[in-house]
């Protein structure tokens, strides 16, 4: 939390104490921070993307984002999602010298105790993880909604696609070639990909959505399961030691 700037909300009773508005906005605002664990793909979704979706979805784009601890690379990575949630320019509020005035504002983001989950009972509109995943598919134009069914696999001409997420550094497969070859002999079409999420998130999510099974070693890269079609399988390899 050391990288998250603190903001204060002050109640003003005397009109003379209210600063003069340089810019009046006709839509409400949401103020949130890009500090903390942003940059880690899992925390990007659990701490920021999903909470921002839950907080802003009710406005249907008619809301403006005020960002503190501004990180341009994060904005660039998730630009498609941000533009889907807000029709207005994102403001780096820390660098503003003007006084921005809004009729209403939400400070902070709605989130749950359990990460990467949405409890529909806590929202009037009943938002769920299914709604969020449908939102992702719409944003990135993902075509597949259903994974290959088991009865379809009996048709030898249909081969389920197995995506093997490879890592270069820690917790990496040392025999990814052999794993891929074995998968092919078992009837799968193996796809090996590295997660280059900082520069090509839209391209990588297309690869994930095209597959029926996602396999990888425990880590943030498995967060990409949110882009899989419904009824797909996730295989998580947990190293010993």
Keywords, separated by commas or semicolons:
2 domains; alpha/beta; 17% strand; Rossmann fold; elongated; four-stranded parallel β-sheet; 241 residues
Quick overview:
With 241 residues, the chain is α/β, with parallel strands linked by helices. It has seven helices and ten strands. The protein has two domains: 15-140, no CATH class; 150-237, Alpha/Beta hydrolase fold, catalytic domain (Rossmann fold), CATH 3.40.50.
Draw up the topology in text.
Blueprint: E1 23-24, E2 29-33, H1 41-56, E3 64-68, H2 72-77, H3 79-85, E4 91-92, E5 100-101, E6 105-107, H4 129-140, H5 150-153, E7 161-166, H6 176-185, E8 189-194, H7 201-209, E9 213-217, E10 233-237
Parallel strand pairs: 1-5, 2-3, 2-6, 3-4, 7-8, 7-9, 9-10
Domain Glycosyltransferase 61 catalytic: 125-233
Main location: Golgi
Keywords: Glycoprotein, Glycosyltransferase, Transferase
Account of the 3D structure:
The protein has helices spanning 41-56, 72-77, 79-85, 129-140, 150-153, 176-185, 201-209, and strands spanning 23-24, 29-33, 64-68, 91-92, 100-101, 105-107, 161-166, 189-194, 213-217, 233-237. The chain has 241 residues and is an alpha/beta fold. The protein folds into two domains: 15-140, no CATH class; 150-237, Rossmann fold (3-Layer(aba) Sandwich). Strands 4-3-2-6 form a four-stranded parallel β-sheet, with no helix packed on it. The chain has a four-stranded parallel β-sheet with strand order 8-7-9-10, with helices on one face. The chain has a two-stranded parallel sheet with strand order 1-5. Residues 125-233 form the Glycosyltransferase 61 catalytic domain. It is found in: Golgi apparatus membrane. One of its GO terms (molecular function) is pentosyltransferase activity. It is a single-pass type II membrane protein.
């Amino acid at each position: 939390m050391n990288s998250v700037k603190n903001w204060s909300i002050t109640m003003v009773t005397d009109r003379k104490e209210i600063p003069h508005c340089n810019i009046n906005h006709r839509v409400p605002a949401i103020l949130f921070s890009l500090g903390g664990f942003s940059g880690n793909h899992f925390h990007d979704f659990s701490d920021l993307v999903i909470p921002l979706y839950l907080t802003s979805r009710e406005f249907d784009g008619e809301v403006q984002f005020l960002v503190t601890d501004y990180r341009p690379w994060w904005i660039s990575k998730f630009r498609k999602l941000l533009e889907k949630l807000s029709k207005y320019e994102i403001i780096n509020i820390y660098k503003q010298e003007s006084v921005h005035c809004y009729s209403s504002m939400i400070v902070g983001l709605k989130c749950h105790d359990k990460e990467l989950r949405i409890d529909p009972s806590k929202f009037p509109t009943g938002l769920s993880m299914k709604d969020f995943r449908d939102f992702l598919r719409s944003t990135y134009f993902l075509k597949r909604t259903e994974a290959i069914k088991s009865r379809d696999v009996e048709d030898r001409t249909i081969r389920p696609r197995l995506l093997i997420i490879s890592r270069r550094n820690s917790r990496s497969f040392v025999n990814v070639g052999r794993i891929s070859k074995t998968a092919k002999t078992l009837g799968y079409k193996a796809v090996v990909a590295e997660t280059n999420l900082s520069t090509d998130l839209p391209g990588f999510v297309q690869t994930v959505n095209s597959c029926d099974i996602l396999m990888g070693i425990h880590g943030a890269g498995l967060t990409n399961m949110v882009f899989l079609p419904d009824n797909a399988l996730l295989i998580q390899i947990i190293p010993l030691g």
